[in-house]
Each structure stands twice: as C-alpha cells, then as structure tokens.
Amino acid sequence: MDALWVQMNAAKPGCTDADIAVVRLQGLPHGLRFWYGHDVIRQFMEAGKVLIVEDENIVALDMRQRLTKLGYEVVGTASSGKRALELVEKHSPHIILMDIHIKGSQDGIEVAQAIKQTHRIPIIFLTAYSEDSILARARQSEPYGYLLKPFTERELHVAIQVALDKHGFIQQLAHREAHLKLAVNAAQLSTWETDVNAGAIIMGYSAVQALQELTWPQLEATIVASDRDRVRQGLARLQRHPHSELDLEFQMQAQNQAQTQARRWFRLCGKSFSSGRTPVRVVGVLQEVTEQKRAREKLLQADIAFRCSVDGIVVLNRARRIESVNQSFLRITGSREADCVGSELALISEKNLGAGTYAALWESLHTDGSWQGEARFHDAHNRLIHALINIGLVPDPDISEIQYVVVVSDITPIRHVQKELAHAAYYDALTGLPNRHLFYDRLDTCLSQASRRKFVVGLMYLDLDQFKWVNDTLGHQMGDDFLRAVALRLRSVLRSCDTLCRWGGDEFTIIVHQADSTEELEALARKLLTVLARPLRIGNSLEVVPRASIGISLFPEHTRDRDEMVRMADIAMYSAKKDSTASFAFFQPFMSTQVAAHFNREQELHRALKEDELRLFYQPQFDSDSGALVGVEALIRWQHPLEGLLGAGEVIPFAESSSLILEIGKWVFNEVCRQLACWLADGFDPKRISINVSARQLEDREFGCWVSNTVEQHQVSYRYLDVEVTESCLQDNETGISNLFWLRDKGANISIDDFGTGYSCMQSLKSLPITALKIDQAFVRCVHRDESDKAICNAIIALSSQLGLRTIAEGVETEAQAEFLRRAGCNELQGFLLGKPQPVSAVTPLLPRSRPD
C-alpha cells in the first residue's frame, strides 16, 4: 500500500516527479495519507476484479485458480476478442490479463487497442512471444505490463500490483491536472486563449521569460514538424466542440542553437466553454515539462534498477531501520518483506560484524559517506551466505532527512569456487592426494621438526612399473581407475602421521615421519609392495597385478637438503627398477654415477644442437605396384665428435625426457623445409617428406605459429609435408588434435606411425584428419610365415582401404615380405630391401624430376 500512498500524495500541488522518487523510497508520514479522502482510497483498495483473455482453457483455468488464491476476483475468462469486449462492457474489470494469440479475427493487441479507445482499463500482456515486431505492435496499445510465459505466481502478482498502482497514479494525475488548470497563475505557466471573433490564438501572461515576447505564430513555427499538425488539429477540435478539453505534449526546437539541450518539451492544456448562443471560448495554459520528462525517465530507471537488480537493495532510515527492500534481497536472505520493514538489518548488526567492524562501518559512513566490506550470515533456511556489502549515505535536503542505501551482493558461489581452487592448488584432482606443492610444504615442516627434535625422516619415491602399458593398452579411463585404486591401497598401510602424495603421472612420494630405523623403513617398503602385489580389479572384470619400484632416502643420514633428498630417493628408485632382484633400494652414492651419465648425454645433445652436429638422413618410400618413389622419411642422426654417427635411439629418448625435444623438433622441421626448397629449386620432386612429430611438440600452443613461420620462410607448400604421429598423440590431447586439424586444413598429410602397437581408438580414425596408416615393423618382420602377423596386416590394410586411407608398411627387409604386402593391397613399402636411410647426397639421385608448369 505504500506505493498507493505515494501516488496520491504525489498529486499534491508543487510536488514534482523527483519528489515522487524520494517519497517512494522513504514513505510518507501517516497523517498525509488521507490528503484526498477515503473515497479515493477505497477506489484503489477495491481494485481486484480481473478479466482473463486466453485461448487455451487449461491455461485460463490454472490462471483463475492462482489469481483466486492470491485474493483477486476473476470476473470472467474469454478466448476471443469479441467475448472479451462483451465481458468488459458487462463487468468493468479493474485489470485485464491479455494473451496475444487468441481466437477470432482479432489478436490480443488489436483487442487491447479497441478497449483502450473506449475504456481506461489497464492491460497486461501474457504471452510466449518476444519478437521485436510483436513488442513494437504491443507497445502501441500502451500496456501496463508484458510477462513472458512461463512466469511464476509471484511475478504475476507483482505485475498486477504494479499495473494497478500505475493505473491509480494515472487517474489521480488526471484529477490533479483538472484542478491545476484553474490555477495557472500560481505556477510558472503561460496562458493562452482564442479570439472569439477571429479564432486566432492570443498568448497571455507568461511566467517563463523565454515565452514572454512570443506571439503564437512565432511559437508555432518552433514546434517540430512531427508535432505541428497534431497541435493544430487539437486546437481546431477545441474551437469546434463546446465543453471539450485539450491536453497534449510537443517538442520545440531551441532558438539558441548554442544551447546543449537542442529540443525542449512543452505541455499544452486547454478547455472550450460555451453558454447558450455565445461563441465558443477556449482558454488554456502552456508549461515547459522538459525537466519533468527527465525526472520521469530517471524515476523509471531507478524503479527498474531497484526491482530488476540481481543484488539485494535495502533502504534504511535515519534510525537505521529498514524502509524498503527489493525482491533480490528477499531471495538472498529468504526473508519476507513484512518481517523486514521496520526492523534492524541483522547482517550489518554489531552482533554479526563484531564491535570493531561495526564501529568502523558507521564512522566511515559519517566521514566518507560510504563503506564496503564482507559479511557472513545464515539465511532463513540456515544456509551460510557470503555477501559483499556496499553502503552509501543519501542525504535528502527537501525533508532534512538522511537515508542509507545498502547493496547486498551474494558472493557465496565465488567463495565456493575459491575454496575449490585452493583445494585444486594443493591436492591431486584424480586421486585426492596431496600434490607436489603440498608435499614440499609438509616436507619442510617435517624436516624442521626433525632438526629440532633429532629424529629420522624417511622419503620414499614410488614408481609403478607397468602403468604405461595399462594406459596405452586399456585406455586413459582404465589408467585413471588404476591410479585411484593404487592410491587407496597405499594409503591403507600408512600411519596417520605419514604423508602420501601423488608426484605426477605414475609416481608417488611418501614422507615417513619419525622413522625409528632403516629396518622400519625396509619393513614399510615390503608392506607397500605386498599390498600392491594383490590382483587389482579395474573396469568390469579385468584384473591387473600392480608392480612398483621404491627408492628411499634418509634425513639427516643422506642429506639435510630438501631438494637433494627428493633427488636421492628418485635415483634410488631408478636403481631398484634396473635391479631385477629387488623392488626397493636405499640411496647409495654410486647411484649418482648412472644419473650423471644420463645428464651428461642431455648436455651433449644441447651442445650438438648448438654446434650443428645433428643430421637428417632420408629413407625412400615406394609404390608397391609400380615401384615408383612416392616419398622419403626424414630420420635424425647425430654426428658425435667422439663416438661417430649415432642413430635416433641416442637422441630421441634423452630429448623427450627434457624440453630439448621441442628445440630439436623445430630444427628438424626447419631442415626439412630448407632441403625441400633446395630440391624443388634444383628441379627434383620428392613427392612427400615424412616428419616424425612427438606428443610434446603437438601439445605446444605455439606449434602452429612456428610451423607456419618456417613454411613461409622457405616458401614451400604444405602438400609436400607428411606429419607422422603415434597413437598416443590422439588420446585426450585437445591442443594436439586441434593442431592436426590445422595442419590438414593447410594441405599437409597426417599419418599414424607404428599403427597397432598402442591403444587404437576407432573413433579417432573416423573423426580425425588422418590420411595414412603405417604398419609397424613388428608385424612386418614375420608376416610371410606367422599367421597372426598375416591376420593383423590384412586387417589393418582392409580397415585402411575401407576408410579411404593410404597404407605404408615399414621395415620391409625381404622379398617375401614385400610380395605378401603387395598381394594384401598395401599401397606403399619402406625398408632396407628397397633403400636404407641415406644422406642428402645419396638420396637426391633417386628423386624424380619435377614436371615443368
């Protein structure tokens, strides 16, 4: 009802639209509520008769029941425009709920326009249509609301109440204007009247200085063209029809073009009088309403912001009591509006914030006029809510009063996400175990305690021996299940004071707090290996026997340095893995020699890349039927200064264990493109050059960038490039798969190398941009005499043929192998029988000559 009191009191002379906005927020004193008397109040209190216009009977019946439940009187339902007009005449409803799509020749918008011409009944459109064209048509009928189906009972109730309030406001405004037309001299208005004899308009007294010197023709000339005819027609009607009135608004172009406001709004009011045979006399007032227009727009914007804001908004009075709340606040807190108004805002109370924060809040408001902070509280359903609170002090000079506007933003989901992110930062997402970050934190704490209290700390580094086989053979989902099951088993035999962490991949670390002796650590290692050795069921029926290798380092016996302790346990684990007689080992100094050898090889590779010691050899590939050369494969070699020419086995494993694989991959790609450009310039056509690309290279987000730069640098075409990847590159590697699609779009070929030796996904063959399959030499070696190898090769060739892919057999070393593959339908052959990997000088003569353009 407060909105109703606001509307009636806003009609008081001298009360502007800006005043209405303030009153709507703070309410009115009780004594002013009866300014217009009980009859007017009763008129709005009884405004509860509703007419439903809906063509679907079930929907209309449901709406009738919901409205009756809310306390409204439904005077009837109509499914067509004709029936709706009959019920309007019969029952004079206070409000009409109108569906746009109804039965009959007229739709809801046309019926609304017809009702608007004869009745002043507010209409709310209820529809599922929201197209701009429908909204534009509906807007012409000036509805009081537009609700999209489906809507809640609460939304419908709010829409009706707002419409009734608005309708009441419009009626009161008309009543007020009728009184104000006789009191123009009490306001800043301009008067006018018509010449009884000539019918011309005579400008009278004007309180507006800008209009004092203007005649009506001068003023009429400033009216914008779109409004001028309407003003003339309205004035002509007044002169023709006695006892008629005129009330319209129009725009005038400002005479001073330098003004920032180019156009100004004016309101023209008039009334015609006639007694007996005397000529019709017309008098009226002219009022500038530019500021009122702006105020109404601001009021509408403020009301929309208050109602539609996703944040809760609360208005407090000088006594810090709640004056009003919006629906979002009620939703966030679970409160009822009736329980809120007049009470203290509990979430910023001293009890909830604490004495210090509470005092700082009000001091900041009185000093700076604003405060921001966070608060936690339980809503009406006892759920903990995290809220961001912004409070602003709003002084009102018109009533010498102050108010506080409180904006409550529910940040509970943000806090939950932050908590999850914090957990993700310190715990492994797959197993739920502490990750490497939390491991180091706990190891630091444990070593600090051990230094003070003089006890031994053991560190175990555990690596699963056959996890790669499980992952590659059974798939990543099975691999994940396997890791989770292993984590549960390991945790089951540890003490609560010990820490089990997933280090990464198939590696785990265990911090053994306060170990009494090496014998105790040895016993724990055996217990861990024993519990792992039991068959483990993964999937529906598959059983796998986990095996692991464990390396152990001791504090302070082996070292006092945290990182050195981890390194020693890692070294001991690799030593245990190489020793077939033991599955665990304590760190020994000699073990570092083996690691040093691996490290030295990595360093040599760095030097080899820098000193240009790497070479590319090319192995030819031939058509199985014609014997014509169809391409070459680029294979890396290392011209070691001491050991001579080394194969790929001395390069790739060491490079893949470090980031060096990325640098070597770029070198290979650049060298291939450079050599391709040289061959083409010399008139040779290599057809295709196969390049092996690792999963780590494909996962590089800069892969496409440096590949395109290399190709453009050497000005070669992608169609000459055949990128070979292994099956592991196609599994759960979104970046790599995207890069493959990018390469194929550029025109490059994509081949799966060593096909059949890994985890092959048929969906990958169907959906990925693959152009060829390479049969691994493990199946080719005995294909001429082993029935299993024959079946596998035949299956791969048949599958490739059905999918429209090329088939290449690698490792062909005998004529018998070649003959079988030809008969089976293999497209291309590669191997020592046909040609060994050779340097550029030896392979160039084998290349065919380019055809002239």
Structural class: alpha/beta
Distance between the termini: 89 Å
Overall, the morphology is: elongated
**Arithmetic mean of pLDDT:** 83
- Rg, please? 44 Å
Number of strands: 31
Contiguous uncertain segments of 5+ residues: 1-47
Task: Give, in spatial order, the strands making up the sheet with the most strands.
Answer: 23-24-26-27-28-29-30-31
Q: What characterizes the major β-sheet?
A: 8 strands, mixed, barrel
Query: Helix share of residues?
Result: 40-55%
Strand content: 15-25%
Number of helices: 32
List the helices and strands and how they pair.
Elements: H1 2-10, H2 17-26, H3 38-45, E1 49-53, H4 57-69, E2 73-78, H5 81-91, E3 95-98, H6 108-118, E4 123-127, H7 132-140, E5 145-148, H8 153-180, E6 190-194, E7 201-206, H9 216-222, H10 225-240, E8 245-253, E9 263-273, E10 281-288, H11 290-308, E11 312-316, E12 322-325, H12 327-333, H13 337-340, H14 350-353, H15 355-368, E13 370-378, E14 384-396, E15 401-410, H16 412-426, H17 436-453, E16 456-464, H18 467-474, H19 476-492, E17 499-504, E18 507-515, H20 518-533, E19 536-538, E20 542-544, E21 548-555, H21 562-578, E22 584-586, H22 591-610, E23 614-623, E24 629-640, E25 644-646, H23 652-656, H24 660-681, E26 689-692, H25 695-698, H26 703-714, E27 721-725, H27 734-746, E28 749-755, H28 762-767, E29 772-775, H29 777-780, H30 787-802, E30 806-810, H31 815-824, E31 828-830, H32 840-843
Parallel strand pairs: 1-2, 1-3, 3-4, 4-5, 21-22, 24-26, 26-27, 27-28, 28-29, 29-30, 30-31
Antiparallel strand pairs: 6-7, 6-10, 8-9, 9-10, 11-12, 11-15, 13-14, 14-15, 16-18, 16-21, 17-18, 19-20, 23-24, 23-31, 24-25
Helix pairs in contact: 1-2, 1-8, 2-11, 5-6, 18-19, 22-24, 24-26
